[in-house]
Automatic annotation (TrEMBL):
Pfam families: LRR_14 (PF23598), LRR_RPS2 (PF23247), NB-ARC (PF00931). Residues 2-36 form a coiled coil. Belongs to the disease resistance NB-LRR family. Residues 816-896, 920-1068 form the Disease resistance protein At4g27190-like leucine-rich repeats domain. It comes from Fraxinus pennsylvanica. This is AAA+ ATPase domain-containing protein. Keywords: ATP-binding, Coiled coil, Leucine-rich repeat, Nucleotide-binding, Plant defense, Repeat. Residues 533-701 form the Disease resistance R13L4/SHOC-2-like LRR domain.
Amino acid sequence: MYMHLNIDCQRLRGEVKNLENKRKDVQLLVDAAKRNAQVIGSEVDAWLQKVDDLKKVACEVLNGSTNSQMRCLYLNCPNLKSRYSLSRKAVKKTADIVELKAEGELRVGLVGYPAPPVQIPYQNLHDFEGFETRISIKNKIMEALKDKDIGIIGIYGMAGVGKTTMVNEIVAQVKVEKLFGEVAMALVSQDQDLINVQDQLAEMLGLKIEEKTNKIVRAGRLHERLAADDDKSILVVLDDVWKEIDLTSIGIPPEGDDKRKGLKILFTSRNYNVWRNMGPKTKFEVNVLTEGEGLELFKHAADISDDTTDVLKGLAEQIANECGGLPLALVAIGETLGNREEHAWRNALEELRSSRVTNVTNENNLVYSAIELSYKYLQSDEAKLLLLLCSLFAEDQSISIERLVIYAKGLFKNTTSLSKTRDKVKTIVDKLKSCYLLLSGKEEEDVKLHDVVRDVCLSIASKGEHVFMVRHAGVTEWPEQDTDELYTAMSLTFNGMHQFPSGLKCGNLKLLRVRCQRSSSGPNMTSTDFFEDMKELRILDFIGMSIPIPSSIQLLTELRTLCLDSCEINFDLSMIGSLKKLEILTFFDSSIYVRFPSEMAQLGNLRSLDLRIQKGSHTLPPGVFSGMKKLEELYLGDYFQTRDEERMHIIEEVSSLTSLNTFQISTDDSQFLMQLIQALCLEKLERFQVIRTKEKAPNTKDYHVTRSLHLLDDIDASMLLEPGLKSLMRRTDHLFIEEAKVWKNLSNEFHEHGFINLKTLKLLSCDFEYLIDATISIPTGMFVKLELLELEGLHNLIEICNGHVPMKHLLGHISKPSSFSNLVTLKIDDCDAIRNLFRESVAKCMGNLQILCISRCEMLKEVVSPDTEQNEVTDMLEFPKLREIMLRSLKSFKSFRSESNKVGAMLTLFNQVMFPNMKVLEIEELDTVKIVDEEMHIRSLYKLSDVTVRYCDNLLTFAQSDSIKLLQNLKRLQVRSCKAVEVLFDIEGLKIDKDEAEISILDRLYSLRLDSLPSLLHITRMVAKGICVFQNLTSIDISECDSLRYLFSPSVAKSLVALQSLWVNKCEALEGIIGGDDETTESKMLEFPRLNHLTLVFVRNFKSFKCKSNCVGVPQTLFNQVCILSYMHEQSAILIFLKDA
C-alpha cells in the first residue's frame, strides 16, 4: 500500500502538470480573443476557474503525502489508514483532472465569440430634438414603444422632414432607458433589397447567416434569432420604407405569432399608404418645423451667432423662411452659406426666390435629390403631370382639387367622364399626399405644394416633355421669350396689364392660365390674333379680368376647358358656340352684363356648366340645356329672377339631363326649388348643394360642392318625406335647418335613415326639444359620422338626447360605432331651456370631442348629468381628445359634471372629469368660486396652456396650494373683471417633497394680464423658501387693480429673469413693483436683465420700483436697489443702473 500511494501521487503530479499546460494554452486563446474584441464564453471562464480550484485541492493532497508523519502514535510504523485515505484522494483527483483536461480540449477553438455590435452613440450635428414640435412627437413614440399592446409603429412624413433623425434619437434614448434588450436597424430604401436588409439586421443582432442567396432560408435564420428568447425584448427599426413590404419575407415574425411577444417593429416612410396592409395601428406624422424652429436650425447650420452682422441675420431669416421649415433644406442651404460673404447670401436668397436653388446647394443638394427621386418613383405619367400642374400656382397658394380636375379632364388621356376624372385625380392626390409631394391646403378640398417641392417641379418642368413658363410676382407686361414655341403651359399673374401681345408663336401650348389683379386700372385688351398660333390649346383659364375675347378663339378647335372666373364680362359670348369640343365652361364669381347666347346650345360635348355668377340677372334662353345631353354637372347659382313661364322651360330642360350627377342651386323661391327638385332624378346625384335662402344673395363662397342641404321652415314638411328628397336627406353630409317650427324631434322625423352619412348639422331658431329621443327608439347609425354640431336659438331644447344611448350598436356579431362617436366640435348658443347637455352614457360616446363651446344658456347647470337620479358618481369621466373649452354667460352653471348624491355640496368647476389634452380654457360670466381644485386628477390639466377668465363675480382665487401643480404647462393667463378675486395664486399649503431642495411652479407661464380686479391683494401669496415662480414670464400687463399695493415679493421678483415688458395702468393703491417683508432679499440688489419696456401710467401712490418696508417716511428713489439691463435696439428705454441715493 505504501508503494501504491507513491505511484498514485506521482501520477497525480503528472496530470497536474498536464493540466497547467492546458490551462496556459486556453489562456493564450482567451487573450487572443479579447484582443479581437470577442466575448469570452461563460463556460470557458467556468473551466478556467475549475482548473484553479482543482489544482489547489490536488496540491493539498500532494502536500499531505509528504508533510504528514504517517506513523502510529507510539511506533515508527506507517499509518495505514491515513495512507489509504490519501491514496484514494490522489486517484480521485487524478481522474477529475483527466476529465477536466478532456473538457478543455473541447474548448480549444470555441473560446471567444463575436461581440454584439457596438453602436456609436448617435450624434446629430444639426440637433433639433429640443424643438417643441419634435419633443411632443418623440414623447408620443416613446410612450407607444413602452405600451405592451402595440407591436408595430409607423413614422411618416415628407422627404427631408427629419424622420431618420427622429428614429436615431429614439434609438439612442431607448438604449439609455434600456427599454429593449437589443436594437436592430436596417435601411430599406427604394430598391428594397431584402438580402441587404437581412444582412443589416443580422449584423446588428450578431447573427451570421451562411446562406447567401436563398431568401427563404435566410428569412428562417433571422426568424429563429428574433423569436429565440421570449424573455429578451427586441426593437427592429426599418428606415425609409418606400413601398409595402412583407415582414415574413425578411424573417420578422408576423403579428399574432406566439414567439413575437418581446418584439416591436418601428418603420419610417415618406408614403402613408405603406402602412395600409402592414399592420401598424399606431402611426405618427413628422411635420415641418415651425417658422421659429426653422430659423434656429438654419442659424445653427450657417453658424449665425450674436456677433453676426444685422444684415446677415436679416438675410438668414428670409432664407430660412424660403426653406419652409424643411430640416434637410435648412441644413443643406445653411451649411452651403456658412462662412460665405454677404453677397453670396443675397445671391442665394434671390436664387431661392427665382427657383434656381440647385445652383445654390452645389455639392450638397440632398433635398432636391430626395424630392426628384420621389417624383421619378411615381408610377404613372398622369401622377407626374398632375404634380407638375400644381407648380403652375403661386408659391404657398392653396390649390383647389376641383381646379386640378378641370385641368386633368383636358390633359389626361382616356378620360370619358368628369366623375371618373375626379375619382382618378383624387386617387392621384391621395397618392401624392401619401408620398408628401403634396400637402393639405387651407380648405378640406385643397392641396398645396411645399415651396421646395414646387421649386423641384419647376426645375423638372424647364426641360423635357413638359416646359412651363410661370411668373407670379410683379408682372406688368407679357414676358419676352425666344422659346415661346417650346412651352406647353403658361401661368402668369399680372398687376396692371392692359393689353395682350400679338404674334405669339406657341404651337405646343396646351394650357394657358392668366390671372389679373383686380387692383389694376383700365380695361384689359386682347389682340384679335392672340390665339392664332395656339391651335393645340386645350385649357384656357382667365381669372379676374375684363376681357373682350378675340375672334381668334374660334380657331381653338382642341379647346376642352374655358374658365372665365371672377371676370367682368361685357362682350358678346356667341363665339363660344363654335368651340365644339368644349367640355367645361365656368363663369364662377363673375359679373355678367350681357345675355347668354342661344349658340351655347351648340355645345353638345359640354359636361360641366358653372353659372354661379356674382352679378347679373340674365337667364338662359330656351333650348340651351336641351343641346347639352352629355351634361354631368350643373351649377345654377342663384341668379334666377325670371317670370314663371321662363322658369318652366328651365325645369323641363333640366329634367331631360339624364347624365346629370352634380347639381347646385341657391334660391329664395321655395316653390321653384321644390318644382325643380321634383323634376330631377335625385337618386343619380352623386354631389348636390340645395340651398333655400331667405333673400337673394350671391353664393360664391363655396367653390367645392359637397352633399349639403340648407332648409327653411316654409318648405312643406310633407314634401321632405317625398322619396326623392328623402334620398337626399339620407345621403347628405351637411344639413342646415333654419326656423323649423313644426318638428320636435329630429331623429324621429326621419327615423328610417338616421342621418347615417351626416358630418355637419346646424340648427338655428327651431322648435326641437330633442335631437334624439332614445326612450322611443334610436335609428341604426344615427349621427355616427357626425363631426360638427351647432345649435343656436333652440329655445325649447330640453336635452340633446332624451334617455341614454348604448356605447355600441350590435348588428349581428359586429360591433358598430355609437351615436356621436366621431363628434369633434360641439357649439351651443342661446338655448334657454336646456339644463344639461347630455347624460353620462352619451358623454362616454364622445371620445373624439375636441372643441366644446357653450354660451348664453341661462338654465344650464351642468354639461354631464347622471343617467338616473340614483347614480353615484365614483369613476372619473375622461374626454381624451378635448382640447378647447369655452363656457360663456351661463348664470346657473354649477359644475361640468354633477353629483346627484351630493345635493347642496359645493362643487368644483371640473368635478370628477379629466381633460388630458385640453390646451385652451375660456370662462366668462360663471357663478363659480373655484376653477382649479387640488382634488382634480394630476393629468386633468396637464396640457392646459391658454386660460381666459372674465366676469366671474364670485371667483376668489384662480388656483391654490397643490392645485397649482396641475398648471405645469400654463403659458398665457388673462383674468378680467372678476370683482371678488383677492389672490391669483395662493401657494399656502403647497406640499414640497423632502428630497427636493427647490421646486419650480408656473415656470412656463410667459404672459400674464390682469384687468379690473378691484379686490386683488396678491398675485402670489405665501411663497415659501425653495419655491421658484415665473422663471419664464416675459410680459405682465396690469390695469385697474385698485387694491394691489405691490406686484411681487422680493423672493418672487428674483425669479423674473426673463421679464421683458411690464405695463401697469390705473392701479390706485400701487406703491411699488416689489414690496413686502422678505429678510433674505431685503438688502440685495435685484436684477432684471431682459426688461426693455416699462410703462407706469396713472399710479399716483407709486413710490419706488422696490419698496423698503423698514424705511417708513424715508424718501426712496424710483429705482431703489434695482438693476435694469436693456439689450434692445436704439429705440428702447434708456439703460438704467441705480442704487440707493
